[in-house]
Amino acid sequence: TLEKPKQVQLTRFDRIKAKYKGPQITISPEVEAEVGFSYSAFDDAVAATDYSFNRNDVVKGTVVQYDKGGCIVDIGAKASAFLPLQEAALIQDGVSIESLIEIDEERNFEIISEEDENGQLMVSIRRIQYREAWDQVVAKQETDEAFDAECVSVNRGGAIFLVNGLRAFLPGSHLTGRLPDEDLIGQTLPLKFLEVNQEENKLVVSNRRAVVEAQMADLSRGDVIDGLVKALKPYGAFVEVGGMSGLLHISQISMDRIVDLEKVLQPGQKIKCMIIDHDKVNGRIALSTKTLEPEPGDMIRDPDRVYDMADETARIYLEKQEAERKKREESAQNIVLGLGDALDDLGSSDKSSDNLDSLLS
């Protein structure tokens, strides 16, 4: 008995092509002779072509049809490729395949599987975007510039933000002026990186660092600023200045000795103070009200007078500091010039002695 020949199973792309009812164009033998290439010769060339696609290859493709939660992509192979919804984009939030990619759209796809029994490959856009996102994140870290990102969820330890499509963790201790609660979701905040580790897929960001550095950039020594007393300690007071915490040391509160700090300052009290030092890298500020006293002891006797006259007192104080600085520079310059003259005199004395010795010899 003769065995029946096995029926060739059509691929999905071949089935779609077979259903196509578009215009059929017949080419006459004369035209084929003129062109030098016929349809049958073209089919033979296609059949003889070796299509070599490997996993992780990036190829150019065109979307031809939506199909079962994904879409069919023509990548130039004998069989079509399939793009599943979960591989259609890096950022997905309950969206459909139609909203992520359009029919006839041409773009790069990454092959993520071997051929199945139908010769079909599976492709991805998400994995290409994932690598591009990490490249962008690493570039941002190198420049150390602040950037904006949206909060997508919160947890006990902090919040999750989307940075170029990647999930970044913001510790609660690095959130300025608020707690990581549900109201934070959907809000956009300025951030800076604390840790970027692509191998471990780990991103840690800080809102406090971005805010503090932005504010520190506008602050200088000698600036008079408003502050709010947050806490008292035996060594001084912590004062909140524009979301940052500054230290007002007890020795910088008044020219007079302070016996009981609580009689001078209270938590929640608004004050004016001068920046006398700052560490922009670590976001630390040293403050003083002593430099704003019109008279020694005014912070103890009449703090309102100190705050009312703060700007004028600060101007006088800074002018005095500048005059003293110039005086010190002039003194140092005079010492250097005097030393130069002394060395010149010493050199002249040595030369005269040499001349005398030569005459006597």
Kindly describe this structure.
With 361 residues, this protein is an alpha+beta fold. The protein is 33% helix and 28% strand. A 5-stranded mixed beta barrel has the order 1-2-3-5-4. The longest helix has 51 residues, at 310-360. The model has no long low-confidence stretch (mean pLDDT 83).
- Outline type: elongated
The total count of helices amounts to 9
**What would the average pLDDT be, to the nearest integer?**
83
Q: What is the helix content?
A: 25-40%
The H/E string reads HHHEEEHEEHEEEEEHEEEEEHHH
User: Could you describe the largest sheet, including whether it forms a barrel?
Assistant: 5 strands, mixed, barrel
Determine the oligomeric state from the structure.
single chain
Distance between the termini: 138 Å
DSSP strand tally: 15
Strand content: 25-35%
Strand order of the largest sheet: 1-2-3-5-4
Assign the structural class, choosing from mainly alpha, mainly beta, alpha/beta, alpha+beta, or little secondary structure.
alpha+beta
Low-confidence stretches: none
Radius of gyration: 39 Å
Brief summary:
The protein is an alpha+beta fold.
Keywords:
9 helices; alpha+beta; 361 residues; 5-stranded antiparallel beta sheet
